[in-house]
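New to this. Please check this protein:
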Amino acid sequence: MEKVRVLGAGSTPYGKLGESLVEMIVGASAGAIEDAGIEPREIGAAYISNVFGIADKQVHLGPVIMSRLGIPERPSLSIESACGSGSVSFREAYANVAAGFYDAVLVTGAEKVTHTGTAWTTTYFAYCSDFFYEGSAGASFPGLFASMARAYMSEYGATEEDFARVAVKNHDNGMLNPKAHLRKKITVDDVLSSAVVASPLKLYDCCPFSDGASSAIVCSERFAKEHGGKYVEVIGSGRGGSPAALQDRKHMTTIDSTRIASEAAYRMAGISPSDVDFAEVHDCFTIAEVVNGEDLGFFEKGKGVEAAREGKTARGGEIPLNPSGGLKSKGHPIGATGVGQVAEAYEQLTGAAGERAVKGAEVGLTHNFGATGASCAVHIFRGA
């Protein structure tokens, strides 16, 4: 297998943007290409993650993007895996470079949804659940994650204040991220007094739907060294799955796909959770960061809220979670989210994270899942 590197990254801001879906992807991709110091013609293929292309009247994105980049003859693959689409695209890019099919590829993800309104997006997004059992009965993702939160509170004695601290921490990080959607400082009281979305989750427990695009150049070690730019090593990659419907799971407070994917990534990297210096964790709702932090092996089951309470997950803590601001503050442009996490890891490990930098970080982890964790991918990176 070829050793795989990330040579460059680019992102649009996340938020309510005026650009079209295609314009955002082209902009982020051009940024990644420039950051890598390469020419478009050096890209062998592209992996493009998107869920709601139909909302901006453009599906079959691959050939469109490659044409805009001036390389229409290059192959491309469009990938959908709900919220986890970006990390699955990265995994495919990684696997194809590792197998030696290409020296360098583009991985990019994007979403354009804010113009549709929250009601439409929430309804359409429910199709990513096991719709026969959940969506058809009126269950949306806020309600499903609220069920997880209630189960966690019952099993471990957590409180709504505990979840609120996660939101406050991620907004503190997002304030330092110039591309974050919600660059707004909040307090625990702000979270608790915000509108109830699905009890016990309030508005500020929930991530926003965002527009945005993120891209990265994934390449072989030889290609990276030949081009002489900054790069990071991809040292671990893992994927996992869980039953699509919550009713079919053994536990409401454990996400098996996270555990399976992370164990595979740790095994490939030859490290343990204690070797990770920071992690970008899929925090679509505050309860998700808590549960996933445990299932990634950073804390014992039931100790995730205690870790947040004690500041262990803060940027200067024992294991900083979501230094970018996470989905909660940075935003959640669904198809872009997993690639945006890779871009954050790249910036953290190449000294480009600015004020939000995790001091002394050498190893970073990204975790991105689809729906309520039915599909998941975890990647581990090391600074070169």
Q: What stands out?
A: DSSP finds 13 helices and eleven strands in the chain. The chain has a mean pLDDT of 98. Residues 4-116+209-227 form a domain with the Peroxisomal Thiolase; Chain A, domain 1 fold (CATH 3.40.47.10).
